[in-house]
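Please decode residue identities from the backbone states below.
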């Protein structure tokens, strides 16, 4: 492929450079030596140089040789620089694979770490703006699993059997407490490179349907942070690969999620999820909060025109609600006081392979220091979700990334890819790769 052709070019240029270096400088030096030997003073040398006959074949040959040598040196420098970059990229791809669960290890040409991989990531590490994401369609019909199972045990019949057999699920349905959830049907990126736009289609679903789906696809236990021996593992792997292959054209059921990182002057805020959240990796550290989308974030029922009911600024609404629910941030009075609204950036669209789900990873920065922010929010944080919070620097983030999988019981499975994307956002692509490779080889 391409690296091979650069390797060949590099070897060829090395040979040409060696030959030209052996011939051209001595040849040109010979011409100069003749002038110097015939001169009695420095002025004579200058006169001799000015009197060179540039039409003389031997002189033309010397000039051509010098030009060729300079061009060869420049080409060699450029090709070797590309090779170095490719070498770093190749090493980094291997590093990512070592720190990615085998369920999704075969997914190439993207970022992955732990149990997550990027379906899309912003080519520019600074990320996308919220306005580049649009919900274009909302299907409110009842969610049903396929009548003819696309794979064994995944159908409307097996779903109904699941509902009858599980007493907790049955009780939720009997009390009519099955909450609405919202799945991504498709997540398409337009091809205009200058202004990437995402077209998102949403399908209404429910909590019980998601439990059936997640149980089918689960590869990691959300209560104990242990690997799950899933009998459907081949289907799971194939379907997770399929999302990447078809670039967001189609998904099975999911619950569209926001992975919001709160940035500080030194890094990001990690939050430790309370033990009460028993279905979402209790007592693990996350970067920073996760929030499933609600209808009120993207759909305005009271709008008179059907077409204008879908919110244009759904991401900002979603972020404000998440910050309000998790940290008591008042969307009207405190949001702009505590955060820089213009700093909100979306870094990637991630696939969560521990359960087969889809999440938007984004970042917003606080105003002032972490300590000041904590002082202002301490009472609210205690009251809301009983979180522990700590600031995580980029150096610490690299330690967490390279600590996987040994440290996987300490961190939410999505934390790894989130902090990798944050590191890239802060330090750029090449520096992120270099720093992680250096730390891995013990240089830092």
């Amino acid at each position: 492929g391409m690296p091979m052709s650069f390797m060949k070019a590099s070897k060829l240029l090395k040979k040409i450079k060696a030959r030209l270096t052996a011939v051209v400088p001595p040849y040109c030096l010979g011409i100069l030596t003749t002038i110097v030997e015939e001169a009695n003073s420095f002025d004579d040398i200058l006169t001799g140089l000015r009197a060179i006959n540039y039409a003389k074949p031997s002189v033309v040959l010397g000039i051509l040789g010098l030009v060729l040598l300079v061009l060869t040196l420049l080409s060699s420098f450029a090709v070797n620089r590309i090779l170095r970059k490719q070498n770093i990229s190749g090493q980094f791809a291997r590093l990512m694979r070592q720190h990615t669960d085998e369920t999704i290890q075969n997914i190439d040409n993207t970022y992955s770490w732990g149990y997550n991989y990027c379906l899309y990531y912003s080519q520019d590490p600074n990320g996308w703006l919220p306005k580049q994401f649009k919900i274009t369609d909302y299907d409110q019909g009842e969610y049903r699993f396929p009548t003819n199972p696309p794979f064994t045990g995944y159908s409307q019949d097996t779903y109904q059997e699941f509902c009858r057999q599980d007493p907790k699920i049955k009780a939720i349905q009997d009390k009519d407490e099955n909450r609405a959830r919202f799945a991504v049907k498709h997540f398409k990126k337009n091809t205009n490179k200058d202004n990437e736009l995402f077209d998102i289609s949403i399908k209404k679903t429910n909590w019980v349907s998601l439990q059936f789906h997640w149980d089918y696809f689960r590869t990691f236990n959300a209560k104990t942070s242990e690997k799950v021996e899933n009998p459907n593992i081949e289907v799971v792997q194939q379907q997770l690969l399929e999302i990447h292959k078809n670039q967001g054209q189609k998904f099975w059921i999911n619950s569209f999620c926001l992975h919001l990182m709160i940035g500080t002057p030194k890094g990001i805020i990690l939050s430790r999820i309370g033990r009460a959240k028993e279905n979402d990796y209790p007592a693990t550290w996350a970067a920073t909060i996760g929030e499933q989308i609600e209808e009120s974030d993207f759909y305005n029922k009271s709008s008179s025109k059907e077409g204008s009911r879908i919110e244009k600024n759904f991401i900002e609404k979603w972020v404000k609600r998440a910050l309000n629910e998790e940290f008591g941030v008042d969307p009207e009075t405190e949001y702009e006081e505590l955060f820089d609204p213009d700093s909100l950036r979306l870094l990637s669209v991630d696939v969560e392979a521990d359960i087969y789900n889809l999440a938007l990873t984004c970042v917003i920065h606080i105003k002032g220091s972490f300590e000041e922010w904590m002082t202002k929010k301490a009472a609210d944080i205690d009251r809301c979700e009983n979180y522990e919070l700590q600031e995580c620097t980029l150096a610490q983030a690299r330690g967490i990334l390279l600590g996987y999988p040994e440290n996987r019981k300490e961190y939410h499975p999505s934390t790894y890819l989130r902090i990798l994307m944050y590191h890239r956002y802060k330090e750029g692509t090449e520096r992120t790769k270099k720093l992680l490779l250096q730390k891995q080889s013990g240089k830092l």
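Observation: The longest strand covers residues 339-352.
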